[in-house]
């Protein structure tokens, strides 16, 4: 279970840093919001819609953006799968008295 938490926090940090970098580079380079490094695990940036699909369609020749966009989407799916698995284990454990 501890390994799942480490994976989740690693994914959170990776996705948030990528989304901030994409936002600073393509959406609003002068934004002070994306430049703050106050919290690496800010859920606001994890769930924030920065228009990634539109950016990827507008810049099909930008390899870094395409790769980063795909990585963000994949990591978010992996995050939610691991989170659902952990919640399933926790609920099952509570029902059957394992916890």
> What's the alpha carbon Rg, rounded to whole Å?
16 Å
What is the terminal separation in angstroms?
12 Å
Given helix and strand content, the structural type is mainly alpha
Principal-axes geometry comes out as: elongated
How many individual β-strands? 0
Q: What fraction, in percent, of the residue positions are helical?
A: over 70%
Give the integer mean of the pLDDT values: 85
Count of separate DSSP helical elements? 4
Q: How many structural domains can be distinguished in the coordinates?
A: 1
> What is the H/E string?
HHHH
> What kind of sheet is the major sheet?
none
Determine the strand fraction and express it as a percent band: under 5%
* Low-pLDDT regions: none
Distinctive features:
99 residues
Question: Explain this structure to me?
Answer:
The chain is mostly helical and about 100 residues long. It has one domain. It is built from four helices and no strands. The chain has helices at about 1-25, 45, 50-60, 65-95. The longest helix has about 35 residues, at about 65-95. The two termini are about 10 Å apart. The model has no long low-confidence stretch (mean pLDDT about 85).
């Amino acid at each position: 279970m501890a390994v799942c938490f480490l994976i989740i926090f690693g994914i959170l940090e990776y996705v948030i840093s990528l989304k901030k970098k994409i936002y600073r580079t393509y959406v609003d380079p002068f934004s002070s919001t994306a430049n703050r490094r106050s919290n690496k695990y800010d859920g606001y940036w994890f769930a924030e819609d920065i228009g990634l699909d539109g950016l990827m369609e507008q810049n099909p020749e930008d390899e870094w953006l395409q790769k980063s966009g795909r990585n963000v989407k994949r990591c978010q799916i992996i995050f939610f799968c691991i989170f659902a698995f952990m919640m399933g284990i926790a609920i099952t454990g509570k029902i059957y008295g394992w916890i």
